[in-house]
Amino acid sequence: MGVPFKQGDIVLFQGDSITDAGRVRENPADMGKGYALMTAALFGSSYPEQQVTFLNRGISGNRVKDLQSRWEQDCIALQPSWVSIYIGINDCWRRYDRNEPTSAEQFEEGYRELLVRTKEELGAKLILIEPFVLPVPEDRKLWREDLDPKINVVRELAREFGALLVPLDGIFAQASMLAPSSFWAPDGVHPSPAGHALIAKAWLKAVGAAI
């Protein structure tokens, strides 16, 4: 079974710092230095005839509510055929570093609005990437209480909206059996180059790309 993209499709990556990965904001075509760049490069090299355009609009520090506030400009206006969303770790993190919690219900409500708008206004297809956290440093273990319900929200929304799902939490847990968690994400959140490659491979597998 081949990839679901059509010739000339536009694929938009949206999210937080993991998607942003140091992209140059002044250059709309810049893909950053992380999984979005790796994914676009690998896909383009394997399927050059499809001429798929990849865009990155991830912004470091973003939560669901930040995506909501810029969805018109950074999603709808770009008219993507596919929208890949990777959000959630900051909705968890802010509870622990700023005492600004986002409940699972608030997270779901905001995320659902993004998906409804995307489907109704664009008819775009969806790829949802679930957030993950690894137990480095030790305090990250406490985050599971907050993050696990949000991961479940992403999975349920993927099922409800017929989206492709990239099940990162399990993938990173499994990878941590092969090398220490810090090898994949030194702070438990931000992937190393190998971690970004792991995300790119999982994303390409989810869309059925043979790389």
From TrEMBL:
Top-level taxon: Bacteria
Q: Where is the SGNH hydrolase-type esterase domain?
A: 15-198
- By its UniProt entry, which InterPro entries does this protein fall under? Ester_Hydrolysis_Enzymes (IPR051532), SGNH_hydro (IPR013830), SGNH_hydro_sf (IPR036514)
Recorded hits in CDD domains, A to Z, give:
SGNH_hydrolase_like_2
Entry protein name: GDSL family lipase
- According to its UniProt entry, this protein's organism is Paenibacillus germinis
